[in-house]
């Protein structure tokens, strides 16, 4: 955890010295996540969660935007086997510390309103995880969840005075769940995120 905060701090300081203009704020929002699988008989549902953290904008029209977020996500897996004895449901809940490293461009930029687009990679580190059997006995356990994951994300946002509004889609690049009892089951994670933020320091 300390390494994550140290990396984030170094990135912010280095880019601030390079680009000068700097803004800092806080944000919170809703996210819908889905852990898809490669097995036809195991289905997953979209799960509602939340995220909260800090954001930065470093630069002017073209800017760098590292963030540090805590995100709660997960899904409900359902096995659809032919035999009742093979049917089960498992609830997977995961909390992560996420470090998006975004490149943004302000399409419209004024003292009152700004419209921007952003894209970039994200490093995500699992800090807590829980696998619960809802019915039957499932095959997934917490050891199958990768503790470090990579995503690519993109989206758009609008700033009105000191308020920020963002809509993003986040796609997993690696196997979020793997090696489930040597069954070949694999799962990747994707999220849809909507957030509202508040600028507490700096200019637009």
Number of domains: 1
Put simply, the count of helices is 1
How much β-strand is present in the residues? over 45%
Distance between the termini: 30 Å
The main sheet comes to: 8 strands, antiparallel, barrel
Short descriptors:
1 helix, Porin, 204 residues, mainly beta, 9% helix
How would you characterize this protein structure?
- The structure is a single chain.
- The protein has a single domain, classed as Porin.
- It is 9% helix and 65% strand.
- The protein has one helix spanning 2-19; strands spanning 22-37, 42-44, 47-59, 62-79, 89-109, 113-135, 148-160, 163-172, 187-202.
- Strands 1-3-4-5-6-7-8-9 form an eight-stranded antiparallel barrel.
- A hairpin with a 3-residue loop joins strand 5 (89-109) and strand 6.
- The longest helix has 18 residues, at 2-19.
- The protein is elongated and about 60 Å long.
- The protein starts with a helix and ends with a strand.
Question: What's this model, at a glance?
Answer:
This protein has 204 residues and is mostly beta strands.
Give the helices and strands, then pairings:
Blueprint: H1 2-19, E1 22-37, E2 42-44, E3 47-59, E4 62-79, E5 89-109, E6 113-135, E7 148-160, E8 163-172, E9 187-202
Antiparallel strand pairs: 1-3, 1-9, 2-4, 3-4, 4-5, 5-6, 6-7, 7-8, 8-9
